[in-house]
Specification:
- This protein is of the alpha/beta class.
- The chain has 2 domains: about 25-50 and about 320-460, Aspartate Aminotransferase, domain 1, CATH 3.90.1150.10; about 65-315, Aspartate Aminotransferase, domain 2 (3-Layer(aba) Sandwich), CATH 3.40.640.10.
- Helices cover about 40% and strands about 15% of the residues.
- It contains 16 helices and 14 strands.
- Strand 3, helix 5 and strand 4 form a beta-alpha-beta unit.
- It is globular and about 60 Å long.
- Bound molecules: ligand PLI.
- Ligand PLI binds near residues 104, 129, 131 and 220.
Length: about 450
């Protein structure tokens, strides 16, 4: 009798039309490249990389629909038609009436921080993000982490590790007073926690709390569609709602948002400030002229804005996000088969290796995550990113390293770029590094820039 067919496999919701060849290197070439880069994967030349999982930021493959849009870029200095189309889509997908384009996310963070923060203020947020916090600090604020405790434990499998702990919020309000808190900075999913989402229930509670205390609520909506996807998959009452509907509901609780378009929007450059507040909008529209360019292009070409507008239409498509999160899950499950320690639950945009466990013989000031990222590159040409003590930087008050609980290596998945076969190669490389982990020695930092040091610092082997 014929076996009953089991349909459980799924595949990319597209076929490949253009390919970019990648260079294969030898181990000794990679040893040399790593040494020259000071064992910092940010300082490697991209042509020396085989599978590039440094980031999902601006590394996406655009669709033929987006490329076609690039051809109708209206490159007028003022009033480009692509700007107005993009604005229409900002209203449609994020539900915010006012919009200013920026060249990328941190430009938006810079302006939002400058507009909203007075020196001496406090900004609570669900874990820090590097560029977000630096702009809040440069504007004179102190960042306060109010994420739930579970987020700091890589092995804790709580589904909503991106949630804000309202007890921590209440404590902060009691200590410093609501007047010193211009806004809550909420991201979803939380990048540094492992791509962990917040629940709609938590967002509603935070919204009520902010309303009660007259504190504004701002959203880092950089990967908001992934958060919406997790809500659809995991939260009661959302199964039949579309990602688009969930995104719109999420945004409805915020006063404003910023986006690095280089992620969800499936483009290579771009950023967004969008808000319900006319006064904030007018300030941003004025400020963008100083830092980025006229408010109808914000440092972007007309064709970039067209690609963003079209990317927005694709970012809410269920199949696109399912592919993305599905690839990350597949990678995580394969790594688990080899016993490699990863952050759980598996998040939206990346697999995070728990470097503290992986290289448990290295103390944190020997940079276990930095060491591991360098070892993986040397093994196979796979480029990952440190997300630990180097990324955390120094405490502005004491000047000492910050020692984050999470010491992670991030394997980040560019959208629509790599196949399952690439993932298999990458998994085998990490498994082989894991098998010889006890022999790996740590690093010492020999060069350190003042701001966002992880991008440019250099190391030597101990
Ligand atoms: O890289 P930008 O300036 O377009 O965006 C800054 C930024 C803001 N928020 C969040 C959550 C980010 O993830 C983010 C940038 N992330 C990078 C570059 C990353 O590799 O994760």
């Amino acid at each position: 009798m014929a076996k009953k067919q089991v349909k459980k496999s799924w595949a990319e919701p597209f076929k490949i039309k253009v390919v970019e060849p990648i260079k294969m290197t030898t181990k000794s070439e990679r040893e040399k490249a790593a040494k020259e880069a000071g064992y910092n994967t940010f300082l490697l030349k991209s042509e020396d990389v085989y599978i590039d999982l440094l980031t999902d930021s601006g590394t996406n493959a655009m669709s033929d629909y987006q490329w076609a849009g690039m051809m109708i870029g209206d490159e007028a200095y003022a009033g480009s038609k692509n700007f107005y189309y993009l604005w229409d889509n900002v209203k449609k997908y994020y539900g915010m009436p006012y919009f200013v384009p920026t060249h990328q996310g941190r430009a938006a963070e810079h302006m939002v921080s400058k507009i909203m923060i007075k020196p001496g203020d406090y900004i609570p947020g669900n874990m820090y993000f590097t560029t977000t916090r630096v702009h809040q600090e440069l504007a004179g604020a102190t960042f306060v982490d109010v994420i739930v405790d579970q987020a700091h434990d890589p092995a804790n499998t709580y589904a909503w590790k991106g949630n804000i702990d309202l007890k921590k919020m209440a404590k902060l309000v009691k200590e410093v007073g609501a007047k010193k808190i211009p806004y809550v900075s909420m991201a979803g999913p939380v990048n540094m926690a492992g791509g962990q989402p917040f629940s709609m229930k938590n967002l509603k509670d935070v919204y009520e709390f902010c309303k009660k205390h007259k504190i504004k609520l701002w959203f880092d909506a950089t990967r908001a569609c992934e958060n919406a996807y997790f809500i659809k998959e995991k939260e009661k009452g959302y199964k039949t709602k579309s990602v688009e509907q969930i995104l719109k509901e999420m945004c409805s609780y915020f006063d404003g948002l910023w986006v690095s378009a280089k992620k969800d929007l499936l483009v290579n450059i771009g950023g967004i400030i969008a808000t319900k507040n006319k006064k904030v909008y007018e300030e941003a529209r004025n400020m963008v002229v100083v830092y980025e360019g006229l408010h109808t292009y914000g440092g972007l070409a007309g064709r970039d804005m067209e690609a963003m507008a079209r990317g927005m239409e694709e970012m809410v498509e269920y199949d696109n996000i399912h592919l993305r999160v599905g690839q990350v899950e597949y990678c995580g499950h394969q790594l688990e088969k080899y016993g490699v320690p990863i952050v759980k639950p598996i998040g939206g945009h990346a697999i995070f290796l728990d470097a503290k466990k992986f290289l448990s013989h290295l103390p944190q000031d020997q940079f276990p995550a930095q060491t591991l990222a360098a070892e993986i590159y040397i093994d196979s040409g796979v480029r990952a990113m440190e997300r630990g003590i180097a990324s955390a930087g120094r405490d502005p008050e004491t000047g000492d390293h910050r020692y984050p609980k999470l010491e992670l290596v991030r394997l980040t998945f560019p959208r629509r770029v790599y196949t399952q076969a690439h993932i298999d190669v990458m998994v085998e490389s990490i498994a082989s590094v894991y098998a010889r982990r006890k022999k790996i020695k740590g690093l010492k930092m020999v060069y350190e820039p003042k701001y966002l040091r992880f991008f440019q610092c250099k190391f030597e082997r101990l």
